């Protein structure tokens, strides 16, 4: 009987035992904890949550071969972007070691409803190899999010009462675990530092400098004067600054290392790519821009027409209540 067949045979018992595994103080072969390596988080930042298991041993079967879990989050202040299964410290997916004739690792994570991430992983390695090569402590799942709005207590919590909560040992039986940290409350700050009002002379010099740069770099759309800078100059009452403000192009949004010029307001285009909670739209003019979408999305919207209202949010563009045709 293969590992996959044995796992299927034990699923019924595993689901019945899941609630017991989640109870505080239950005897277990491992300890699961939720953590983040992020320091200060501001609107527009991407950050990660890590799920780590520790306390495994060299005893036969005392290894992690599979898991199924759910994590709830506040979708009004953060958006789910994606997941990976590699333990950063070792650089290896500890459920996916090279082995002749082994099944490939199976794993995925996605939204179930608007505020819940469902994730699973299943090793294709043999019990003997897992027991010999798997570390006693490692990160088995990393979930990536984007900060959408300020919050003093953005809550992220494992659903310990989920009847489907499951951790499997190397022999495809139930791996009982304790939960050290299952809830995190994170603070999300503003998307940018407040700008103090500079003296009039500094404003005038800045305006002249920006004007000179705009002449030298007129052919580069990524070097145009930003709307925020133009608005600051306009607030000083300088005529030159006012001229810059009226001629200021659409703000520049940076997402995923790429830079795209796009403004707030009504947008429309065809979806050509989906990554987590982000979509890339190609407009009728051929321009391509990434947007963050707060509503749950899947790859099924690729090639559909999308329309909605876009607005800057930190270093991203948020597409509010998009409609896909």
Describe the structure using short key phrases.
OB fold (Dihydrolipoamide Acetyltransferase, E2P), 19% helix, five-stranded mixed beta sheet, Immunoglobulin-like, alpha+beta, globular, disordered N terminus, single chain, 5 helices, 325 residues
Overview of this protein structure:
The chain starts with a helix and ends with a strand. The strands form four sheets. Strands 2, 4, 6, 7, 9, 10 and 12 form a seven-stranded mixed β-sheet that branches. A five-stranded mixed β-sheet has the order 5-8-3-1-11, with no helix packed on it. The chain is α+β, with helices and mostly antiparallel strands and 325 residues long. The longest helix is centred in the N-terminal third of the chain and has 20 residues. The protein is globular and about 60 Å long. It folds into three domains: 187 residues, Immunoglobulin-like (Sandwich), CATH 2.60.40; 55 residues, no CATH class; 74 residues, OB fold (Dihydrolipoamide Acetyltransferase, E2P), CATH 2.40.50. α4 runs antiparallel to α5.
């Amino acid at each position: 009987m293969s590992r996959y067949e044995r796992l299927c045979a034990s699923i019924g018992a595993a689901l019945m035992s899941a609630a017991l595994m989640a109870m505080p103080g239950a005897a277990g072969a491992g300890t699961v904890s939720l953590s983040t390596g992020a320091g200060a988080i501001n609107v527009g930042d991407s950050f990660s949550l890590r799920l780590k298991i520790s306390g495994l041993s060299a005893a036969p079967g005392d290894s992690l071969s599979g898991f199924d879990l759910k994590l709830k989050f506040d979708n009004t202040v953060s958006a789910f972007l994606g997941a990976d299964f590699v333990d950063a410290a070792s650089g290896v997916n500890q459920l996916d070691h090279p082995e002749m004739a082994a099944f490939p690792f199976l794993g995925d994570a996605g939204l179930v409803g608007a505020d819940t991430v469902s994730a699973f992983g299943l090793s294709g390695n043999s019990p003997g190899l897992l027991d010999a090569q798997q570390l006693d402590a490692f990160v088995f799942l990393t979930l990536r999010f984007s900060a959408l709005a300020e919050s003093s207590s953005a809550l992220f919590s494992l659903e310990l009462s989920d009847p489907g909560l499951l951790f499997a040992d190397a022999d495809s039986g139930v791996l009982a675990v304790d939960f050290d940290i299952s809830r995190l409350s994170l603070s999300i700050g503003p998307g940018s530092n407040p700008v103090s009002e500079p003296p009039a002379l500094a404003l005038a010099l800045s305006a002249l400098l920006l004007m000179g740069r705009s002449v030298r770099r007129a052919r580069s759309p990524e070097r145009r004067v930003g709307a925020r800078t133009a608005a600051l100059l306009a607030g000083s009452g300088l005529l030159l600054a006012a001229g810059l403000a009226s001629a200021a192009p659409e703000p520049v949004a940076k997402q995923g290392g790429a830079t795209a010029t796009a403004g707030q307001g009504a947008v429309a285009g065809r979806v050509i790519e989906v990554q987590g909670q982000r979509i890339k739209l190609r407009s009728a003019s051929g321009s391509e821009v990434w947007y963050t979408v707060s509503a749950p999305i899947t790859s099924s919207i690729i090639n559909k027409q999308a329309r909605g209202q876009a607005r800057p949010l930190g270093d991203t563009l948020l597409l509010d209540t998009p409609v896909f045709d």
